[in-house]
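User: Quick sanity check before I run a bigger batch. Here is a single chain. Can you write out its predicted 3D structure?
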Amino acid sequence: MYFETGQGSALSSNGHHGVDQQTLEARAYAVARKFNPLLVNTVVGFIGPEYLYNGKQIIRAGLEDHFCGKLLGVPMGCDICYTNHADADQDILLTLLANAGLNFIMGIPGSDDVMLNYQTTSFHDALYIRQLLGLKPAPEFDHWLQQQGILAQQSNQLYWPTELPKQFSRLILS
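Assistant: Done. Predicted structure follows.
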């Protein structure tokens, strides 16, 4: 089961009854834990500057969410994102959360969700953080990535291969 949460949703619907958004977010994780979920994901900056004023508040909210997820023992990940009208970027929060042991991030091609009009992390961000911290994907996924020619490894470091994998180049060049 997958749960998606995010600070501010109860405020935006006027359903908070005077309770602060972090307390409500922690309660959402407690409810999710009761269902023994596979994944819990906070969409930290999607609520926009109406509820998280700027990049500093988005960083604070992301770290609070991660801490509460760890405290409650839920398999927590984060969509490290921001709306297009927010004064923010995701690089600092990505690095802080990865150093704090975040379970996963969301990745959208090109970092731009055109349907929902927000910016998020992409696949290159996952590779950046793996290289920075010396992290590898799960063994099964790592094997598949290398078998497909999507990622290569040298001296315990992941990198993009110098050529496009055959199955991709065939589609692009035809």
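Strands lie at 2-5, 39-43, 76-79, 82-83, 112-113, 118-119, 152-154, 157-159.

User: Great, the batch can go ahead then.
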